[in-house]
Amino acid sequence: MSQEHSVRDLLRELFPETHRELFGPDSNDAPPTLGLYPVADGRLALIHGDQLAEFTPLDPKGKNALHCDLCHYTRSRSEAALYRVMVATRRSRYVTLCTATEACQGRAGRQGLETLANRIFPLELPYTE
Ligand SMILES: [Zn+2]
Questions:
Q1: In this structure, are residues 98 and 25 in contact, taking their beta carbons and an 8 Å threshold?
Q2: Which of 14, 15, 21, 125 has a 20 to 30 A CA-CA distance from 85?
Q3: What pairing do the DSSP bridges indicate for beta strands 91-98 and 80-88?
Q4: Distance 104 CA to ligand 1 centre (A)
Q5: Does the predicted TM-score (pTM) go above 0.90?
Q6: In angstroms, what is the span from residue 1 Cα to ligand 1's centroid?
Q7: pLDDT of 62-100, one tens digit each?
Q8: Judging by beta carbons within 10 Å of its beta carbon (0-12, 13-18, 19+), is residue 128 exposed, middle or buried?
Q9: End-to-end Cα separation, the chain, in angstroms
Q10: Do the bridges between strand 44-48 and strand 34-38 make them parallel or antiparallel, or are there none, so unpaired?
C-alpha cells in the first residue's frame, strides 16, 4: 500500500536509526500505522497513517507530579516528561507523556493513541506534506 510506504520513507528520511530499529534491514512485518516511537536524543515520533510529528522533551518546571496525557496515570518527575510538539510553523502544543513509552502505550491502548493523534494532527508544517 502506498500509504504504508510513505510512512516508511518518511521515517527513513527523518530518523534513519529508528527506521532500522522498527523495520530491521529486511523485516517483512507490517509497518506501523499508529504509535509512538523513541528516536534520538530522548525525542518521540508519533505516527498516524502517513502523518508524523516529533515530540521534543523539555525540562519540566516545578516539583509537582505529572499527569500523562496518553495513559492518564499520575507519574513522578522521573517517570514522565513534558514534550513540545510543533503543530504549525509558529505554534506548538505541550504534551505530558511517560518516558517508558511502551508500557504507557500498553495502558492507553489503540483508543488512547487515536485520541492523542487526533489532538496533534493534522499538522500545518510544510515538511509534513
Ligand atoms: Zn503514560
A1: no
A2: 21
A3: antiparallel
A4: 4
A5: no
A6: 31
A7: 778 899 999 999 999 889 999 999 998 889 999 999 999
A8: middle
A9: 18
A10: antiparallel
